[in-house]
Amino acid sequence: MTGLTRRGFIAATLASGAVRAVPQLAKAPPARRILTLVYDKAAGAMRAVERVVH
């Protein structure tokens, strides 16, 4: 891993989510995207879980 801090990980996750969401917002009906950070015991690190709620 690249040694990201928690703050850097959150910033990178939100930035990548924004890049994917912007084109979809223009053509898709309104939906909520919920991003949750969870601790993955197997990986020993935090990971992002994204859900789309219509």
Report on the architecture of this protein.
This protein is α+β, with helices and mostly antiparallel strands. The chain has one domain. 41% of the residues lie in helices and 33% in strands. It contains 1 helix and 2 strands; from the N terminus they run H-E-E. Strands 1-2 form a two-stranded antiparallel ribbon. A hairpin with a 4-residue loop joins strand 1 and strand 2. The longest helix has 22 residues. 0% of the residues are buried. The model has no long low-confidence stretch (mean pLDDT 79).
- Rg to the nearest angstrom? 13 Å
What profile does the largest beta sheet have? 2 strands, antiparallel
Please trace the helix and strand order, writing H or E for each element: HEE
Q: What is the beta-strand fraction? A: 25-35%
Number of domains: 1
InterPro entries: TAT_signal
Protein name: Tat pathway signal protein
Organism: Rhodalgimonas zhirmunskyi
Q: What keywords describe this structure?
A:
54 residues, alpha+beta, two-stranded antiparallel sheet, 33% strand, flat
How is this structure best summarized?
With 54 residues, the chain is an alpha+beta fold. It is 41% helix and 33% strand.
Topology:
Elements: H1 6-27, E1 32-40, E2 45-53
Antiparallel strand pairs: 1-2
Protein name: Tat pathway signal protein
